[in-house]
Design brief:
Pfam families: Abhydrolase_3 (PF07859)
Shape: globular
Largest sheet: 8 strands, mixed
Radius of gyration: 18 Å
CATH superfamily: Alpha/Beta hydrolase fold, catalytic domain
Organism: Rhodococcus zopfii
Strand content: 15-25%
Number of helices: 9
Family: Belongs to the 'GDXG' lipolytic enzyme family.
Number of domains: 1
Keywords: Hydrolase
GO molecular function: hydrolase activity
């Protein structure tokens, strides 16, 4: 153990954040990488974390969609958390998110399901939403809405909100509670934090948002509510927890969703974390703020699910 590392493997906060930012930087490289390389790099970053021996990972099919079922520890309760991975709708995979799901499962004491929703450009909008909705519908039917939570980070956080809006509009039964970490919820990049945090976000840029929008949405309006849910009607949704970094350009996506839910009479909790980066809850093996975020998620869900 070095002088910068605690007994539980945590680095000193400043060094841990530097490592997380460097990990993201390594994914994107010089900005000229192919999508295939970006996808490999993101999974490689995620797979650097070792999964504990008491974690089970099982391939399943839910609602016709491939997924992974992740459970940490010898026993789990009767609840399920559906977690949508990040990656801007063009990258990311359940395989890469196994460690992140294991951390959530351990904190919750519940099963975590990682849907392998279709990605752009091979499958543009609304393919991801269709897959996400099919998985949530099937798990709500299997576990019961009162035992089902849904969440995600980055694009997965935006997808979480879109799934809730879509389910409500279809008259489907909604899950009991939701969580969105650093949600990508506005492809028009109209949030004030896009400008104010331009120099403090090492992960996402306004340019990258434009590229993701063009790839995922193609000719669809970037303000389409089911792709950019900051523009959606957010009435009659379950309680939602929104986590965001105070220095990321997507901060205002979370802030606007929070305000819209509250204005609509719903229950929303917004937690803005200082001194961290976009989607920081991925780094629970060395980043103290990540463990704090996962613990907050577990407490929030635990207050709603039996």
């Amino acid at each position: 153990m070095t002088h910068t590392e605690s007994r539980d493997g945590m680095l000193a906060p400043d060094l841990a954040l530097e490592r997380a930012c460097e990990s993201f930087a390594a994914v994107f490289g010089d900005g000229r990488l192919t999508l295939e390389q970006l996808r490999r790099n993101l999974d490689d970053m995620m797979l650097e974390s070792v999964i504990a021996e008491d974690v089970s990972v099982e391939k399943i099919v839910i609602g016709g969609v491939d997924a992974l079922r992740v459970a940490a520890g010898p026993t789990v309760d009767d609840n399920v958390l559906v977690w949508f991975h990040g990656g801007g709708y063009v990258m990311g995979s359940p395989h890469g998110y196994r460690h992140a799901a294991a951390a959530l499962s351990r904190a919750l004491g519940s099963v975590v399901v990682l849907p392998d929703y279709r990605l752009a450009p091979e499958h543009p909008f609304p393919a991801a939403l269709e897959d996400a909705a099919a998985v949530v519908d099937a798990l709500v039917a299997q576990y019961g809405s009162e035992h089902t939570a849904v969440g995600g980070d980055s694009a997965g956080g935006g997808l979480t909100v879109s799934v809730l809006v879509d389910a409500r509009d279809r008259g489907a039964t909604l899950p009991a509670v939701a969580v969105a970490v650093s949600p990508l919820a506005d492809f028009t990049a109209s949030g004030a934090s896009v400008a104010t945090n331009r120099d403090t976000d090492p992960v996402i840029t306004e340019r990258s948002l434009g590229m993701l929008a063009a790839t995922y949405l193609r000719k669809n309006d970037r303000a389409t509510p089911l792709a950019s849910p900051v523009f959606a009607d957010l009435t009659n949704l379950p309680p939602i927890l929104l986590l965001a970094s105070g220095s990321e350009i997507l901060l205002d996506d979370a802030v606007r969703i929070h305000r819209a839910v509250e204005t609509a009479g719903g229950a929303s909790t917004l937690s803005v974390y200082p001194n961290t980066c976009h989607a920081w809850t991925l780094f629970t093996d060395f980043l103290p703020q990540a463990r704090d975020g996962v613990d907050e998620i577990a407490r929030f869900i635990g207050k709603v699910l039996p």
